[in-house]
Amino acid sequence: MVEIVPQALISDLWLPISRPHSCQQFQYFAANSKDSLNLEDIGKTIQLPVGKEMHMRWPRAIHLILTFFMFQCSALAAVDWNVTIDDQIGSYASLYPAMIEQTKIAGATWASYMQTADTTIDVKISILNVVSNRGSGRSETTHFLGRFNGIRLYEQSAAWELRSGNDINGALPDVLIELDPDYINTQMWFDPSPLTRSVPVPNNRIDSMSVFLHELGHAIAMNGWKDHVTAQLPSDYQSTYDQFITTVNNWRYFTGPAAMALYGGPVPLNAVNLHHVGNNFGSPGSELIPDLMNGVVFNWGTRYYISSLDRAIIADTGVPISIPEPVGILGLALVAIVCQRQRLARWLPNLV
Ligand SMILES: [Ca+2]
Ligand SMILES: [Ca+2]
Ligand SMILES: [Zn+2]
Known about the structure:
Elements: H1 60-74, E1 79-87, H2 96-111, E2 119-127, E3 135-139, E4 142-148, E5 151-156, H3 157-164, E6 175-179, H4 181-186, E7 188-189, E8 206-207, H5 208-220, E9 237-239, E10 245-248, E11 251-254, H6 257-263, E12 267-268, H7 308-316, H8 328-347
Parallel strand pairs: 1-2, 2-6, 5-9, 7-8
Antiparallel strand pairs: 3-6, 4-5, 10-11, 11-12
Helix pairs in contact: 1-8, 2-5, 6-7
Bound molecules: calcium ion (CA) (2 copies) and zinc ion (ZN).
């Protein structure tokens, strides 16, 4: 089990953007809809205006301390992320350790917010030429939940296994992440310190940890079959994410109750790819461009963290993931103390 420093709660803080980017890396995706959730991200590059200035709300040190103690709760969950590399290009052996370690950390970061079963999520990273020249992430299959109002409902198999411990496809991989060699060669920067995420991300590169967190977000929940243009289902089935996609004035929104409560209303989804939040400046949801699961841009030189909104959306899909409440510092400290005691009680049964 990987020991991680849980920096993800800091995602609720926006760190200052130190410099404007004259050229920003645009990452949006289109996806194919098929019988199982076999979807692929397709992206391209455009120029965007400079991002908004954002500021830290709480002192970073206080959050670091609290997140450390909050993580003690997550230590109760026993998800092992088993990562294998399928290098079809054959020239990336030197990056295997970083890819494996970072995917494990990204998975553990997601799981740290969840109430999970004891299980092993097998992730296969395939390095191969894909049309998008970029990356993608998905579960390998789906789990049938039932028929509601005549529509069959499916969750992604990774979500099912995380919450139930049941592996729907046996020894086959549960999650597939695809990385194009061009994406690796020209875009991705592999963080030499993925636990602390403290080394500056180069100005001309996308942060690898952000990529792995993002792709796992798709694999766990933000995926489906609705057509990206029409928002219509292909047939009488939908994903747990699809069910909350709603159209208002020709814009698509996510209308899960937890996400709406947090956001203050329907959450604008990306007009090009429904599996992401936010749109470009001048369109609904431009303030969501800094979100990990945004569909507009992954800035070079920038780290992305799991946001409260990401967690709320995923909670709406049925994954048992915590959604932060505005409890303040004292409330967080109290939870941290309780969790720390629980953790100690687990490892030192005689303590309490
Ligand atoms: Ca498994
Ligand atoms: Ca499996
Ligand atoms: Zn994506």
